[in-house]
Design a protein that fits this description.
Helices cover 22% and strands 37% of the residues. The chain is an alpha+beta fold and 154 residues long.
Length: 154
């Protein structure tokens, strides 16, 4: 069975984020991109930071009947990218700012992702507000809208 569009979108998201480590157009260098978010920051090895953890979250559907009774469904999927950086001197603002920009740039400018979706829109960035010493942790949320394809189950 073919992968669902949702699965293909998530694969493209991961690939776009992995490109941050190799692209000449970004400021940050990622050590880890994983869809497995650990239960605690302490579980992430320092050598694996900065890290991003893209997770496919909530999804909404909108059905429209077109023409001869065919149902057309648009899906709007929220993607949450949890980002973690470390600095032994607790100076994280510039690295945080750079990675926020680079994640946004990677997702908004990826041709493979764009070919799968109708649009992508950044929603918000929510930070830990500096409560974890030497770390900066935040979530970047984007929504992607794509068309449901019944032949491959979404």
């Amino acid at each position: 069975m073919a992968n669902s569009t949702r699965s293909l979108v998530m694969s493209a998201i991961v690939t776009a984020l992995e490109g941050i480590a190799t692209s000449a157009y970004v400021t940050s260098t990622l050590a880890l991109v994983s869809e497995s978010l650990p239960e605690s920051i302490a579980a992430i090895d320092i050598k694996d930071l900065p890290a991003v953890f893209p997770i496919d979250a909530d999804e909404e559907y909108e059905s429209n009947e077109i023409g001869s009774g065919t149902i057309d469904i648009e899906c709007t999927l929220t993607i949450v990218v949890t980002c973690v950086i470390f600095n032994q001197y607790n100076v994280t603002r510039q690295a945080r700012t750079d990675l926020i920009r680079d994640v946004t740039k990677a997702l908004l400018n990826d041709a493979a992702l764009e070919s799968l979706i109708n649009y992508i829109e950044p929603l918000r960035t929510t930070t830990d507000k500096g409560v974890v010493q030497n770390y900066s942790i935040w979530d970047q949320e984007v929504v992607v809208n794509y068309d449901y394809t019944s032949a491959n189950g979404g």
